[in-house]
Design a protein that fits this description.
Helices cover 10% and strands 47% of the residues. By secondary structure, it is mainly beta.
Amino acid sequence: MGRIALLLFIAVASCRLVSLPSSTCADGTGCFLGEVCCSGVCVAEALCASSDAGLDAGVDAGTDADADAGVDAGPDAGADASVDAGIDAGFDGGPLPTIVCNWGTATQIGWTVTALQDGTRPLAQVAAGPHGEAAVVYGQPDGSAWEVYGAYAGGDGGNWGTLQRLGSDPFGATSTPFATPRVVIDWPGTATAVWGLTTGGPYRLAHARHRASDSAWQPALESATGYANPVVSQDGAGWIHAVSNNGANYASHMLDPDASTFSSVGLVGSYAATGSVGDIAIKATGGAVFACRTQVATNKHVEWAAHYSPGTGWTATQVSSDAGDYGDPRVAIDDNGNTLVVWTQPVDAGTFDVYWNWKPSDGGWAIALPIQAAATYSRTDPSVSARGGGWIVATWTESPNELASEIRAVTFRPGIGWSSAAKVSGSGGSRDPRVGVDAVGNARFAWNEWSPGDKIKERRYTPGNDFWGTTTPISVIDAGVVSLDLDVAPSGHAALVWIEEVAPYQFTINAAICR
């Protein structure tokens, strides 16, 4: 997408930001501390006061200073990608207009699905688009086969479309390639679902698209033999980077926004023992980082991280010791190239802690350390997110006991370090935290709070004044939650998906959109 189209979007998305602040919002409600009302919407004061100057500075810096870098960064991406990357990078010099969205009504978008007899459960992933679009994909067992389903909601208040089967694996009874399909949404609003499949022989990557103008998902296409279980991320020009594995080997593939098949990029790494699915994050200008856990002995694991640079390829580094039975890592990279990896590892029998390691954009990896001072109780299930400007946010579950677990969070800035841990949730059995960050560092947290009664809750953090908003209940439910995923678009729109177990081995797929 070129500069003109992007600026048109900015003009529409930010029209509420360019007017002078008013004392009360149009709906009569007040704003949080540090926020003001711009044409009926609560936003950070700095965004409202300087949106015109910031927009001009960002566009000038992006198009003049960074256009050449954008060309170099986008492999075969062309002029549009270079301008997009340059403008995105330039917004670091001035506030990128973002919205303060409002959550819509939670919607059941998937019928009751059944687990396999071995207890294998469906898993879902969600993507949020820059104009309020959202997409959900999930894998579910259907008799002896696995199926991939997808649903799409258009921007500007569009409702969820018809749930659609995207693909099927006739050999799913003996493998689980469809257990966790992935989905991303680019700037024009095109959703792309990616998954692995097999027909009894080599694994392949498959993908299906739903463009903003489409009424249904397009037919699935197949490519890239030899690998399964992909994790995917997308840069500012719409290129999708997928890393998948066939046991100990991890391969990298890329998909052009207009291409029909993935192209092979190369081997990410080969490890002596079987590794995990892993996690991937990508910069707007195309650089990526992938992290995974590999087993080196019984109950002994190490964490690896690999960086990708266009024109250079992958460079892998071990970022932990082999102290014990580590959990799968989560990774984030900001648009300056600063990288953070978090994971869980045991500190003694039955107690886990969240560890982290980081790499500045101009240096090597540091030493792995606990994310906070050592605890006498477990910290588990970390989640991490980053955007341009250097904000990196991490969250986890802290469990003094099962009935009093709570969600905690910290922010990290290169050259400054970690903030003190903040308590995000109540103490009523909160778990499964997820975090996403928009283009200027506003973070949204979502979690499942199950005592008393299951609830999906959400909370917003504004970095400029270190202020936490009020907790918002997204859904009050009568069943247990077995899967939860959150995504936040650079524009500030967000989307949630969760799976409820409504009866033994019976599940529904549910979602909500923040517009």
